[in-house]
Model the fold of this input.
Amino acid sequence: DTGVSQNPRHKITKRGQNVTFRCDPISEHNRLYWYRQTLGQGPEFLTYFQNEAQLEKSRLLSDRFSAERPKGSFSTLEIQRTEQGDSAMYLCASSRNTGGFNEQFFGPGTRLTVL
Amino acid sequence: GENVEQHPSTLSVQEGDSAVIKCTYSDSASNYFPWYKQELGKRPQLIIDIRSNVGEKKDQRIAVTLNKTAKHFSLHITETQPEDSAVYFCAASKGGGATNKLIFGTGTLLAVQP
Done:
C-alpha cells in the first residue's frame, strides 16, 4: 500500500497519560498535515509541515500537543496529560508541493479514546 | 475568521434521483474547493475539486459549481446509486499559499434508498 499510513489505528488511554501517534506520508510528498475530527464534524486543521519545518499551528493545538517531522519523512503527534476532550479521530494527510493546488491524501486515522 | 458552512446535514434520496449539497465560505481569498467522500470508518477521499478561475466542473455523474461573488459552491450528484451513500465534506483553501490548509464544512450524510 503506497498511501498514507497511520499507527496505531486505535488508542485507549486514561486521562493524564501521554500518547504518541505516527504518520507515514506518501513518499515524495513533502507537505504533511494533521487534522482532528470529532463525531459529526468535518476535520479541523491542527498543524502543517513542509519537509521538516513546522510552518503553521492552529489555535486548537494547545501546549499539551507537539508535533515533529524530524527528517522530513514520517511525523509524530504527541499529546501530553490527555483529557477526555482530546477523544477524537486524528487524521494525517500529505500532498506534493508543486506550488499550486494539490490534492491532500488522507490516512486512515488514529482513533483516540480518553477514559 | 475562516469558516465553511454546509447544508443540508442529512439528505435522503431515492436511487436514480439527484442530490445537491451546498456550501458557503467566508474567506474571499479562498481559491480552491475540494469535495471529499468519507464512508463509515474509512478515510476521506477526494471526489472532485474546483479552482476559483472555473465556474463549473464535471466528472461523470458528479459536478461542482462555484459562485465566487456569492461565495457559494455546490456538489451535484446525478443518477444516485446506493454506493453513493456516505458523508460528503466540502472544503475551502487558499491554494498556492504557504499552507494550503483545508477548512472543512460539517458534512452531509447522504443516504441513497434502493
